[in-house]
Amino acid sequence: MRENPARKALLQTTALVAASLLLSTDAASAAEKLKLSVGGYAEQWFGYTDIDDEGNSSLDLSGFDVKSDTEIHFAGSTKLDNGLEVGINVQLEGNSNASDQIDESYLTLRGNFGQIDIGDENSALYKTHVAPKEFGMGINSGDTIDWELTGSTSIGDGGYFRAPFGGTFVEPARANDSTKLTYYTPRIEGFRLAMSYAPDSNQDNNVQPDRDAGLSDGVMASADLRREFSGVTVAASAGYGTFLETASGQDEPQAYAFGLTLDYGGLQVGGSFAAFQDSGAHDGDGYTLGAAYDFGTYGVSMTYLHGERAGLSGSTAPATVQADRDTIALAGQYILGPGVSAQATLGYSEYTSDTGGAGDVQAAYAITGIRLTF
After folding, report:
1. How many of the other CB atoms lie within 10 Å of CB of 288?
2. Considering 8, 35, 282, 358, which has the largest number of Cβ atoms within 10 A of its Cβ?
3. What is residue 212's predicted lDDT score, i.e. its pLDDT?
4. Within its chain, how far is the Cα of 218 from the centroid?
5. pLDDT by residue (tens digit) across 54-99?
6. Backbone angles phi, psi at 237, to 5 degrees
7. What is the mean pLDDT of the chain?
8. Which pairs with CB-CB distance under 8 Å and at least 24 residues apart come from 342-347?
9. DSSP 3-state assignment of 251?
10. 271, 276, 281, 284: CA torsion to nearest 10
């Protein structure tokens, strides 16, 4: 197999960073041993949804429901005598999840050189992405799909997570939390660069990747800016990701993401955009527009999301079907005390398809909940 120039350059850069880190530090002698602390969050939601599926009249999905999302985080760090800070973060799913009981697990190195993350964690493309602020259950994360669709609906609910149809926080090939190495430069005048390398698209997997059998050698790069100008805080990001090696006959999946927000006196306005290319049925793009006001004790946001997709529900093969979605949500938050807040979301979504085998889906929902952070 021919040597990929981009991969070779990336590996050389990684080796230089590691070498400079080792050569510039002495062995620590009196640093305190790392100790773990417990944190995380717990969300409990209660709400009513009214779902009309024109393609499957036998379904009755309307009514009240309770949904949960909880994670327990084990994290800690220590600063060595040479100034190097070393940390760890392991995130346990608080709800049963047969496919991924440990969400993220990675080690962090911080110093004057910047930051390095190693392990199962989102890439630079995802973590530096800028998008409008949302309160309640945000529509730009894919979470509200649980109140809008099920696998039984004619549109289907598969394959939206980390793809433009579900929101603008994306990963190439939807390779969420794949094992990787990420480097962030220090911020200079609010500007930062970052790059990730993933040997393959798998998470929690130490098997040596077969570069002839699937996706491998993923590269994700981004730049973001956070700076204040005359009282206005500007945040912007631009990122790209792909896999340099694929199975025979397949194109390299590509992902793009851009975002911009402006904050002044608690008021924020902004938008974000994401797109997939050469990703089969996931090909398409999406964007969000939003405004939010943070009053301190409470906040309110209005967000609009539009997405387009070449397929319906999780296939990676090329598709001739076009699906569209439009979602709008009004949300609010009230802080009851340290780490405790009441949340609410009022939303409406329309899903449409140009194939006769799937009808349109409309969903209106009112959700309230309690969010705890600890």
Report:
1. 25
2. 282
3. 82
4. 16
5. 767 777 889 999 999 999 999 999 999 999 999 999 999 988 766 6
6. -150, 155
7. 87
8. 342/368, 342/369, 342/370, 343/43, 343/45, 343/135, 343/136, 343/137, 343/368, 343/369, 343/370, 343/371, 344/136, 344/368, 344/369, 345/47, 345/136, 345/137, 345/144, 347/139, 347/144, 347/147
9. coil
10. 40
- Looking only at the bridges linking them, the beta strands covering 85-93 and 102-111 are antiparallel
Spans of all domains in the chain: 5-16+37-373
Q: How many helices (H) and strands (E) does the chain have?
A: 3, 16
Pick the CATH number of 5-16+37-373 from 3.20.10.10, 2.40.160.10, 3.60.10.10, 3.90.950.20: 2.40.160.10
Q: Which amino acid, 371?
A: R
Q: Cβ(175)–Cβ(201) under 8 Å?
A: yes
Q: Identify the residue whose tokens are 């939303």.
A: 347
307: nearest Cα among 265, 258, 273, 281: 273
Q: What is the pLDDT of residue 82?
A: 92
Over its C-alpha atoms, the chain yields an Rg (Å, rounded) of 22
* Burial of residue 16 (number of CB atoms within 10 Å: 0-12, 13-18, 19+): exposed
Q: Are 248 and 274 in contact (CB under 8 A)?
A: no
This prediction has a pTM of 0.86
Which residue in the block uniquely carries the two structure tokens 């994670």?
A: 71
Q: Which of 7-11, 54-58, 152-156, 211-215 has the lowest average pLDDT?
A: 7-11
Residue 161 confidence (pLDDT) above 90: no
> What are the φ/ψ torsions at residue 334 (nearest 5 degrees)?
-130, 125
Nearest to 173 by CA among 259, 82, 264, 244: 244
Q: Is 198 exposed, middle or buried (0-12, 13-18, 19+ CB in 10 A)?
A: buried
What's the token pair of residue 40? 């995380």
DSSP at 188: B
The 10s digit of each residue's pLDDT in 335-369 is 999 999 999 999 999 988 776 556 688 999 999 99
Per residue in 288-340, pLDDT (tens digit) is 999 999 999 999 999 999 999 887 654 444 455 678 899 999 999 999 999 99
Name the pairing type of β-strands 37-53 and 191-200: unpaired
